[in-house]
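Interim report, section 4.2 (structural modelling).
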Amino acid sequence: MSIGAGPQSQGSRRLSRLVNIGIPYVWLGVFFLLPFVIVLQISVAEPALAQPPYTALWEWIDDGLLQIQINLRNFMLIGEDDIYLAAFLNSLWVALVCTLLCLLLGYPMAYAIATAPERWRVLLLMLIVLPFWTSFLIRVYAWIGILNSGGLLNTFLLWLGVIDQPMQILHTQTAVYIGILYSYLPFMILPLYANLTRLDPTLLEAAEDLGCRPMRAFVEITLPLSKPGIIAGSMLVFIPVVGEFVIPDLLGGPDSLMVGKLLWTEFFSNQDWPLASALAILLLGLLVVPFVLMQRMQQTMDETQP
Amino acid sequence: MAVSNERRLLEPWQDPKAPPYLRIDRVTKTFGDLYAVDDVSLNIFKGEFFSLLGSSGCGKSTLLRLLAGFEYPTSGRIYIDGVDVTDVPPYARPVNMMFQSYALFPHMTVEQNVEFGLKQDRVAKKERQERVGEMLDLLKIMELRKRRPDQLSGGQRQRVALARSLARHPKLLLLDEPLGALDKRLRESTQFELVNLQERLGITFVTVTHDQEEAMTMSTRIAVMDAGQIMQVDTPTAIYEFPNCRLTAEFIGSVNLFEGKVMEREGDQVLIEARHGGILRMRSLHPHPLGTPVTVAIRPEKMRLSDGPAEDGVNRLSGVVEDIAYLGDVSIYRIRANGGQLVEMTLTNIQPRTEQALTWEQDVSVEWSPTSGVVLTE
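Predicted structure of the assembly:
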């Protein structure tokens, strides 16, 4: 190492650091911030019969003055019409129920895989990931074949003699729950599995050694230590389910009103881009604010606990 | 007579009528074809500091796990204080373990860790706090009580682990490589502390270690294990001075081994013709038939070194200095005997190294007396 090479290598190191940090920022800027700003801009515009179908945010008027129009009509409209509030509440409710169901179903599965013998684990994980090899849309379509009145499930139940006439499952809220549960379960299982495999088994032995029965050891040791996995899995399920559109559209009926579906209708059927954008902004705010608050809380909790 | 009585009190294993506190009766544990623990019987007495010593894979850890209840024996029984605990699950045994990795609960403070066992036993809150306080005081970690394990140093964690395992006042404390994760300096001071603690509390300790020095310093008795079996059980002194087989002799400290055949018996001594030449006269009470192959084991510090060439004779070998290792307090000399065998011996450096006359390639002779070593039959 010659002394002369010092400053130069330091400079190039600074450059490479800049590039390393820069790339993700540029990525986030181009693909997240910019679209968000565009949507925000559309949400304060007015619908118009034009291409694109909304008014511009700013305009140059004759004497070189810049006119900026901010229109809050869309947000007010959403506040006035109960259907939007109902859709929001219903989406949150469905997301909450599905997250809890995914957790109830996914936790034992993740636990079973994490504690299975090493040679089984890869196979079991494979079975969880395997559905991803088929298109999401096709898999949801397949459920129509299973759930409709002449479908697999009804035929099977009729054959068993449990029911004497086909049940109406398709195009009900139940079908939506089934579809969401099926589609999002892997997103709960995978982070939980990742967390549970890292759990040191000697901790459980230590708990047992100190007089703790296995069931109680699970509650006192495994469960609290898997909290990060539970939070990660729940977020991965909750957030996309609130905005879910495909599943309620294909499997749901008239009563399964969700924000995602409403948004789609405003965009494509009603051609009201500003209203749809306003819905999207509200949805985002609804999801981001609680999570930011939660993270804050977690941080202050970590700080106060020495 | 008084002396022998006192000795009996201090060494209950000398008394055939003393009831063992922990009795391991013909315990075998197999994993598939592997005999991890192979027909082990052991009596450990109340208040002992007992060490299971052996290299990795010798079965010592499995034996400890059998005592804790994490494994169940394939055959054999285990009794603690007269009660058969063979089929008792770990949470119901009057036994606690200090894990090699300490296994502290990362989501609990030091205090909560120590309290955990007492909570499981449904000890009332007031008493629980008192006992936790006692333990934290005893191990001098009171000021750490609100910290979490990831905010502690290795030595501090070890203390917390010890406090946690002692808090329930177990009948038996199992320690898996208790000092293994500490650095050398800390290990030495902790050794003495552990012994003091054990004597103060009167709890029977069973520890697993691969470190012979550690076992020698701390234990009342040591069991040397190999391939799932116990080779020898005895006090540290007896194990060092009178090993009963080559394996024990070689495992503890260094040793010179001379193979040979028994030629003659004279009273309590035997004459042995060494394979590499020379005749050894050793004390042995074992009735070796003439002609049996034996091995004589002599510790390196029990030999005398003389300057200059000499005739080979009874208990005397001549050779040249091949290697010298200066360790500060002692020096290790490797001497190539004329018969071709390498003899290792240690000398205390009474004089500064620079004043010592012995150097490489020098003619020397090595001597020892009949009581300097033992005659091993296997």
